[in-house]
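Write out this protein's structure.
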Amino acid sequence: PINTPKSHLVLGAVTLFILGPLGAISAAYMNFSLGFFVGGQVLAGILGSVVTFGYGSEGKHGANYMQTMAASVANLAGMGILLQAMVWLGLKEPPVWQLILFFTCIGMFGVGAGMLYTPILVDKMQLTFPSGYAVANILRALTDKNLLKRSIAKLGGGTLAGLVAGFGAQLSSVVSRNGALYFNSLSYNGGAVGAGMVVGSRIAIPSLVVASVGLALTPWLRQIGWLKPGEPYKTIGFVIALGTILGAAILDLSIIGCKFIAQWKEKKAAAPAPDEDWKKTSTPRLIAWVIFWGIALTFVAGSVLHLPLKFVVFALLLTLLFVLINGIAEGISDWNPLSSAFVVCVFLMASLGLKDPGIALMCASIILISCNCGVDMQQDRSTGWRLGTNRTNQFRYQVVGLLMGAILSVALAKIFMAAYPVLRVNQFDHPDAPGLDKWQSSMTFKFIGAIKDLTSPNPVFIKAITIGIAAGFLIELLRKLIKANAAYKQFVQSGQKGRTADFVLDAFILSSPYASSFGGFVIFPMVGWFAVGGLAGSLLHVRKENRQAVRQKTKATTAVPDDMSDPSLVGGGIIAGDSLASLGLGIYLLLTTLLASRR
């Protein structure tokens, strides 16, 4: 029976020993070979729906629990590249049990911090979290026969298109180079297209505007010394982008704080309506969870791994900030800038006098793993918010998944580096070593590059992030003043001219820093595909509105729930198809590498 201990045991066992390890192996391999990975939420959601199909529409909650746990396992397992970074730096690897304990404490602290921000990012700001949105639509469609009939064409068509295009792009970008496999990261990105369709052009176009401005300013930035010859704009653009998010967040959090104080003072006012049962969580217990694991992490880092408490505590405090910033970025654009958080943490610690690369790596890994696990927690909560899934149960599934993920992160890293010694070769010192073209390890490359600059921290970073904070705060302030103006509201509602003017303001003139910042985080082609998806999603939405107006359909006769719109179904399908293509590529490359080594 559903929601019984036995049902949770079955769902947990299938996920923990089948779906989770499958995603973990794929994530670890893709990080070692390519430098990015797919968490596996979509695949776990689809397979989980098969397991829970017999429960009917209520099976969506069980499938959601399964994808939550599987994603936790895979996300933490992908962090095994930190062991590779230790080897590249020539550091002595701590005992396995110490690393597992360290990673576990970080993961537990990270999910607690992520859960703390859920009421802000998911309930209040209601950020989209495109992949979480896609998973919610998939789970609803696959576990409800009526919804499946009404949405299968759009969802299935999007998935097929994403799968075919994803495989085509992956195979076309995997070319023979001296008999080895090489991945070209500038190829088509279906995940970006799908995410753009889900969020729409008001979110996607601003990122393209920022990326275009950055591209145009690149020669000038090189001329003034902010970029080295040959460096792309995003090398400094991500710092400015982080600053704009932080500036906007400072304003928004200040407003939220003021409203909270005002409500707290009005004790005589009517009591707010209680949350639904599925949404209820104990905030005091959650705060106690974060404090407990923060203390446990500090103890393990200081007493077991012998890291300086000064930098451990600094990393913990910085984590509380970046779990919010990266959560906003993920909620808007479906992009979690993990590398950016790591690099900024290293830079700030270097500014405080840190010179030891080993300490920098271990302390920065706190913010890396926390942002990975904490933001994944927020995305899973967004899926649960759309489905009405019990948050406490979802949290428990995620915690159990982290325990398995911590074990697999170390185990898989050890296995891969033992099976392929080339992974232990520092690409900075030996860029032409045989076999490196099979193992790009670009994320490890970024980490080592940041740490190598410890002895000479870049002063430009301070200027860039300061400019970003000021710009983000000012832009968000102007946006709020304009949007709150009564005359402007009336103009927007007056007709097509008003709506067009409002779109131009959002997309080109005063774009939300949360949306536009994506253009500073990633390479230009990915931003382009994101904008293409956003434009296509908006056109689909307009087409559906026109057809509904002609047919005079009401909400009561809508084929699917309001938030299962055409763009979300098609875009979510494309995300699913592209994710499956990426997972398929990872398995294909793993098998071909194993076969080649056996020969």
